[in-house]
Automatic annotation (TrEMBL):
Bias (Basic and acidic residues): 131-141
Skewed-composition ranges (Basic residues): 119-130
Organism of this sequence: Coemansia reversa (strain ATCC 12441 / NRRL 1564)
BP GO terms, sorted: protein deubiquitination
SUPFAM superfamilies from the UniProt entry: Cysteine proteinases
Polar residues bias spans: 72-81
Protein's UniProt name: Cysteine proteinase
Region feature Disordered, mapped onto this chain: 70-151
Stored InterPro entries: OTU_dom (IPR003323), Papain-like_cys_pep_sf (IPR038765), Peptidase_C85-like (IPR050704)
Gene Ontology MF terms in the entry: cysteine-type deubiquitinase activity
Residues annotated as domain OTU: 170-309
Pfam family, one: OTU
Length: 337
């Protein structure tokens, strides 16, 4: 809050800096919204509105404090002036004239019986604050209107995948989007349907170990960013990253896990046939079933687990949708995540 020792110029400078900080905070909050997340947009919009409200109220209150201090100063000035600025003849000396000039600059009346006029700069500051608040409010309303008109691609994609999965009696089991989603989803499948108890970190280690042991099956398909094939050191670093970091996994890692567990893998995607990996070698075994989402989160692709759910077909049938109308075909490739 403003203090009696803080001048109006100091207060105005501080307010300008705080407004810049507020704009930076609002910009950061808007950038934190995941693509297509309407609920997060509404939460952020509410948070921004509250920040703007408290910011505006505090500035008004501080301006009022400065105004109150100015009034107190003015009311005490005449008595002091009477004692110090008049000589024995009762005429004001040069110092008194200087004091009057100072009071005039401050925009104050030298006559204590008249009310104190507010400093002109304070009115302008309030007007600037009000205009800025109105501008922020308009921007907020425009952003909300724009968000309402946007197509929620994540919701459309999830609906299409859910419909395709329902044709096989499956529903989506959400996996946390933390960079380990492929391994956590695969682990959910082997733990639920194949009698294992493994963590995502164990899944990462198993994929890396299989790839090292079968170096020749993978190295010829792996390239650096410049297009050159992996060297042995590149390959070893890649496997080390699988084990020790949150690097995303893709088709190479899925292939390694499929062979390591000797299980086929079925991957469901939006507007795409089901991708089948390891089907020829392990078709007699129950498959691992995963869903692959390109638009679920703003940071990139995502994997979920698909669990058996006979009610899934009924859900789409009751909604007037034909869950079996999407063909289930073989597909040979999947974009690297």
């Amino acid at each position: 809050m403003a203090t009696p020792q803080e001048t109006f110029e100091d207060l105005e400078a501080r307010h300008r800096k705080e407004k810049k900080d507020l704009i930076a905070t609002i910009t950061s909050l808007k950038k934190s919204i995941p693509k297509g997340d309407k609920r997060k947009k509404k939460e952020v919009a509410a948070e921004i509105a509250e920040l703007e409200r408290t910011h505006s109220e505090r500035h008004r209150a501080e301006l009022s404090v400065i105004g109150g201090c100015s009034k107190a100063f003015t009311s005490s000035t005449p008595d002091t002036a009477d004692n110090q600025d008049h000589d024995q003849s009762g005429m004001p000396d040069a110092k008194s004239e200087g004091g009057s000039a100072t009071a005039s600059v401050l925009g104050l009346y030298t006559n204590p019986s008249q009310p104190v006029k507010p400093v002109a700069k304070k009115n302008k500051a309030r007007q600037r604050l009000q205009r800025r608040a109105e501008q922020l409010k308009r921007q907020q309303e425009e952003a909300e209107a724009e968000a309402e008109g946007m197509v929620d691609t994540a919701a459309v994609e999830t609906e299409a995948i859910s419909k395709l999965a329902a044709s096989d009696g499956l529903s989506i089991q959400e996996i946390r989007p933390d960079g380990h989603c492929l391994y956590a989803a695969f682990g959910d499948q082997v733990n639920t349907y194949h009698g294992y108890t493994v963590s995502y970190s164990q899944m990462r280690k198993r994929a890396a170990e299989y790839m090292r042991a079968n170096y020749g099956d993978f190295i010829s398909f792996m390239t650096r960013e410049d297009g050159d094939l992996f060297s042995e050191s590149d390959f070893e670093k890649y496997c080390s990253d699988i084990e020790t970091t949150a690097t995303w996994g893709g088709q190479q890692e899925i292939t390694a896990l499929s062979h390591s567990f000797q299980l086929p893998v079925h991957i469901y995607q939006s507007n795409m046939p089901v991708l089948r990996i390891g089907e020829d070698a392990y078709s007699a075994n129950n498959p691992i079933r995963l869903s692959y989402h390109r638009h679920a989160y703003g940071l990139g692709e995502h994997y979920n687990s698909l669990r058996k759910d006979p009610a899934a077909v009924k859900q789409y049938t009751h909604a007037g949708l034909d869950a079996s109308e999407t063909p289930v075909k073989h597909c040979s490739s999947l974009q690297q995540k």
